[in-house]
Amino acid sequence: MAVKTIKRLVKILLAIVVVGLLVFAFIPEPMKVDIATVEKGDLLITLEGEGKTRIHDIYTVSTPIDGRITRIESEPGDFVEAGKTVIANMYPANPQFLDKRSETQAKADVEGARAALSLADARVKQAKAQLEFDELDYQRTTELYAKNSVSKASLERAELRLKTLRAELETAISNKNVMQSRLEAAKARLLQPKEDTSSVDKKLANKKLANKKSSNSVEPVNNCHICIHSPVDGRVLRILHKSESIIPVGTALVEIGNPQDLEVNIEMLSTNAVKVKPGHDALIKRWGGNEDINARVRVVEPSGFTKISALGVEEQRVNVILNFTDPIEKWAALGDAFRVEAAIIIDKAVDVVKVPLSALFRQNEIWSVFKVVDGRATLQNVKVGKRNEQFAEIIEGLMPDEKIIIHPGNNIEDGVSVIAR
């Protein structure tokens, strides 16, 4: 009898355990969700933009003449001083080689200029001889006038002729100088590389090219022939032409600027740029440092430009220029054309209740969130104020330190049991 009772009790216990397991199996488990705490603090309304730093005033040093420039010894980062630091040393360019026709024509021009000079020299001699004769004639006329042998009119005519002959002599001398200059110019057109006018004279006189001496190279004073100095105090930013070569006038050599005169150029969509005003504060982010850099909008350029995005879409963008407001020690590592990102603060809400945007959703055209109360999700309607890309201001419906669900899925309903993930 006792054995039967024990067996019956065991069966009853087993049945109770099975029923309990079945009941436990059908009890819904709490859903794992991401839970955040409602906070109170400042909310910054910003517009994001990407751009790069730039030195406000960059000076490009160029060549003043055609010529040969020696190798530039400066390196990027070197300090330079206005009017003292020599950026480059130049020599005038050698003349080009003449073809046979040009050489023959230039020789003829030299011979013609030499003949004209000889003619001018003869006229000078003629004018001098005539002047000497008339000076003697004037002296005789003066003596005769003193003896009342000639009239005063004769004396005045002699004096006038003397003045006229002196003027003719000056004209002849000036004409001779002009002919001399034309001869030198004609000789210059015969110059070949590494020649001067003296070698041209030897060439025309002796017809021997082997004995000409090169005299075009002039030793510079203090190792500098034509010195190109730095126009400003600053540092060398870029070397645009390094090696020694023959270059034309206006060739850019180096760029010089002051790294402390740094600003930020942010390229913003025109639809965002219209909301930005000069004087707005900004934060320079993701520039490589550990902390954001404070800046301020200096100007919003009035003209936009078209830029193709990475997806191939045409966008109208506007340059927004920012000036740093933090001490230079904080951003001294930045240089010209460094990539940065900026968040321009166009509005601010101080000491407000805020929640992540990912916690908000629309329920019957009303903003709502799911609060976590006693382990269950509770639907809560809220009134939303200002928003940025991460947070939203809650005007009504939530209090600080309350728990809410972020990223609620479609399986979250009012009253569902939840647990933190």
From TrEMBL:
The protein's UniProt keywords, in alphabetical order, are: Coiled coil, Membrane, Transmembrane, Transmembrane helix
Query: Which intervals of the chain form a coiled coil?
Result: 110-189
Q: Which Pfam families match?
A: YknX_C (PF25989)
The main location is: other
Q: Which InterPro entries match?
A: MacA_alpha-hairpin_sf, UPF0194_transport, YknX-like_C
Q: Domain YknX-like C-terminal permuted SH3-like, which positions?
A: 352-419
User: Where does this one sit in the cell?
Assistant: Cell envelope
Work out whether the entry's keyword set contains Transferase.
no
Which residues constitute the signal peptide according to the record? Answer: none
Q: Where are the transmembrane segments?
A: 9-27
Checking Gene3D superfamilies in the record gives: 2.40.420.20, 2.40.50.100, 6.10.140.1990
What protein am I looking at?
HlyD family efflux transporter periplasmic adaptor subunit
Per the UniProt entry, what species is this protein from, by scientific name? Aliikangiella maris
